[in-house]
Amino acid sequence: MFRTIFALSALAAGLVSFGALAAPTQDNAPRLVRAADDGGILVAQDGNLDIYYDARGNRVIVDADTGKVIAIQPPQTRLDRRALRRETRLRELGRAPADDDRYYLDNPEDMARFRRKQLEEEGRVIPPPADEYDPYGDNSVEAYPPAPQDDGNYDNNYPDAPQPAKPGTIKRQPLNEASIDPVQPTEQAPPADQSALPPKIDGKTTVDPSLSLGARQDVAALQVLLDRGGASPGVIDGRFGSNVDKAIAAYNEITGSNLKSTDAVGIQTALAQSGGDAFANYTITAEDAAGPYVASVPEDYSQKAQLNCMCYTSVTEALAERFHMDENYLKSINKGVDFNRPGTIIKVANFGKLVSTPVARIVADKTKKEVYAYDAGGKLVAAYPATIGSADTPSPTGIHAVSRIALDPNYTYNPNINFKQGQNDKILTIPPGPNGPVGSVWIALDKPTYGIHGTPEPSKIGKTESHGCVRLTNWDARELAKLVSPGVTVEFVGGPSADDVAQQ
To answer: Is the pTM value of this prediction over 0.90?
Structure first.
């Protein structure tokens, strides 16, 4: 009996203890469900979840083991796929939710919406009604008013550009005639690419930036004018220098004018009166491209003697000499041009006709490095920059006379009489050609081994030394050769003479 009572008491105590332990679990369950209502996700017993969507679009999270609902997420949340798709569509239509301030830089619609919002905040745009806005329409015309202090019309204050016009095409002349017919002046505005002087903007003369190494088209136009007047500037290269200064002084003496290098208006007027634009077009012919040409000209005289001719090395060299131009300058004003293709049109100097007045007296000024040609009445008719002798091999002094004239001559090298070139100690005969030691012209003087001749390097005239002779550009020497005859006096003035050096 006693044992039975003891067993019942123990059973009753166990039941009380079990109820006390189970009570906290029941009390905490509602708290977990309420926590789920705050937006948190309650993890199930083993993290095993099932996710469902009800008819209203709510996202329902269920414990897979017990079947209890852990959390319900309404469709307005970001995690809802339908809500995301709805927001994306509204954003594409420009109707994103009012409280959505997110903008994506890689989305053009977002950036357009961001720009419209900025304009609306600044009061510079009136947005269309939301329900009447057409996402595929053009609402930009009324959306952007004219800028402040602007009547909506653009005011063009730029100067009028010169009207293009076709310049006269120059007819090709034989190689032995370094002359082109001048372009006749017209009443039309000078072509933009052929104007004698560069355009002016706000009263300032502008320079063509395509010309390399400081060459200027206005200077080249001045050089063309001087060449037309018989005062050769040497090569036409678009650069000022001593040869240009000497040519201006000679030009003023020949024409009786008072031309200055800074008088742009006077230069342009003189160009118009003397033949028109300083530059004209020339069409390269098949004869120009054919040559003959040599690959290169050696420095050694013995190697020169083995060539068939001392010809030009390229079409550009030949055309540059024909039009009295520096070869590099010719290339710079005709960039991208194929000079080897017949039919190609290039821009060249329009220097006009050669001097035709016969010359009765020549003065070679060794100090000024200039040759002056006078007619029978003592009037200056032509002037040329020159290289006259050197300190080691000076030119003669006093008065001499022209003995003979040869065009495209051979050159006889005699180290026993003349200078010695390299290691050559034998007499050599170098064939004719513009790249020969005396160029394409030899005007012999009555003093043996001395004369007036051309040069293979026209850009160095007046800047280097010679072996005692008078060196001109090939075209100047050829022009002078046609003006003189045997017996014309040649007077050397200034500088040291060969006799002075011999006495030292």
So the answer is: no
